[in-house]
Amino acid sequence: MNDELVPDDLKKAYRKKEILETEKKHVVPTVGHYYEEPVLFVEGEGATLKDSNGNEYIDLFAGICTTIAGYAHPKIVATLKWQAERLIYTSTLYSTIPYPVLARKLVQIAPEGLSQAYFVNSGSEANEAALFMARKYTNNPYIIACSRAYHGRTTLTREISSAGWRSVPEPHPSGVRFTPYGYCYRCHFGKEYPDCDIECARYLKEVIRTQTNNAIAAFIAEPIQGVGGIIQPPKEYFQIVHEIVKEYGGIYISDEVQTGFGRTGKRWWGIQHTGVEPDIITMAKGFGGGMPIGGFLTRPEYASDYLMIDGFATFGGNPLSCAVGIAVLEIIEEQGYLEKASKHGEYMKNKLKELQEQHNLVGDVRGQGMMIGVELVRDRETKEPASQEILTVMEITKKKGLLIGKGGLDGNVIRIQPPLELTKNQIDSAITILDETFSEVEEKL
């Protein structure tokens, strides 16, 4: 690459203070930071990030579960350069090579019957597009979403996300209804699995019968809630829900923005662990390798009347993002990420459960593959959320060279969703840091 062509404003040796002051002066407040003292990252490789002071961090959050193949993967870098030298962009008003090639590769790994692909720029757009298609196909306005769910930041996806992720004031969701999600640690009905008869799933029928016209357009759920706090229902939950959805004429949408592309281990899609065959899978994050892309896979009958006027996206399916998507899929296959996520995820989850036995701060450890949640509580008996303590945990782990995510309606769940490039040695280092950090925080409880 000819560095002389790179803008001087980009190459300048900026100091952290200058960048943060520029952000404060010119960037809207919605672009915020996790930490009291923000970190300025300048480089990344594998599952490691380096800041402007040369400090290195093990990243257990992967840019909100996004850089699934790690930072600066040689194949992604080479693909970006190769495609950029040929065609960065032209709209889908014209045919390009990467779009249909990526669509074909996705269909090859999709659940049976999902043979139609559509690309946009993000998970929010993917869910919005899929829901619009479902409403148009069924000619029905009713959408059922789950409590504590998060599906995006566009108008409709805000409405189908739990109230905790919506700002006030916002209108009451029109045609959107909510049903309980299977959150066994904090059961909606005060019961315990497996003696609960999965009442949370069966309640969907009550929601449909009392709050709709006895028919629905779609049901949408994450196989494991990400932003909601890495909540994973028993697989029977989805089986029961799917049966009810079909009984009332609905389309089953599996939101795989965070669970897709091998993150849950052994399978490409989180829903495949449940035995349920979805009608639509929405996706984003991981398969873009850091590039903006989202989309869905669906059955031909639902897509047959989804026209340009319904879903045209100016940058959706652009050659650069699609080319990287193809590279990411190849990386996942070539490097055995599906098995690696399962093996390393089980190892890490067991290590975290050992920490649970040693630290009263840890109320629950859950999840699957490389999608693990650690729920922090102030008291194990009352399960009072440790909403403030987790902020201290994050500050301490950052100082020790470890980056973690945060989620849950009360903001008390550590989200572990790292690049699948994460090594066993890095897992051991992360566990040591978390062990030390939990001890420090517990001293103040």
What does this structure look like?
The chain has 445 residues and is α/β, with parallel strands linked by helices. The chain folds into two domains: 3-65 and 338-419 and 435-442, Alpha-Beta Complex (Aspartate Aminotransferase, domain 1), CATH 3.90.1150; 78-334, Aspartate Aminotransferase, domain 2 (3-Layer(aba) Sandwich). Helix content is 37%, strand content 16%. The chain has helices at residues 8-11, 16-26, 62-65, 74-84, 98-109, 123-138, 155-159, 199-211, 235-247, 300-303, 308-311, 319-334, 337-358, 389-399, 424-442; strands at 41-45, 48-51, 56-59, 116-120, 143-146, 176-179, 218-221, 251-255, 280-283, 294-298, 362-368, 371-379, 384-385, 402-403, 405-407, 413-416. The strands form three sheets. The protein has a seven-stranded mixed beta sheet, sandwiched between helices. Strand 12 and strand 13 (384-385) form a beta hairpin. Helix 5 (98-109) packs parallel to helix 12, helix 8 (199-211) packs parallel to helix 9 and helix 14 crosses helix 15 (424-442). The chain is globular and about 60 Å long. The N and C termini lie far apart (54 Å). The mean pLDDT is 95.
